[in-house]
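Pilot study result, target chain (116 residues):
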Amino acid sequence: MNLDTASLWQHEQALQRLAGNHTLLKRVVEMFIDQIDEKYLALTTALSNKEREEVRFISHAIKGVSGDVGAELLRHKASSIEILSASDNWEEIEVQVNALAEVIDATKSEMVAAHA
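Predicted structure:
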């Protein structure tokens, strides 16, 4: 997957939402990085168990925290999974969840690089 790094993390928009508070943004980003892998693991577990409501709930949560921190591509991908979770198309949901892992890794890398 070829990722558009401009859509991975919208740093300036996230900073604006926090009234320009760089310290707070750094803390929010650290919390996001600490929690996103757990959320992804929970999502893959729910997918393995074909727990439709849990897939919907977790993808919705990922969408929310991604939006809060300005991770737009991740927010968009999680939203797609949330919508797909209403179907029985488990193969497509699995494809999208697997693609989400790459977006998570790229987003975290972008955030770490910006705060290094």
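One observation from the pilot: Residues 22-48 form the longest helix (27 residues). A full batch analysis is planned for the follow-on phase.
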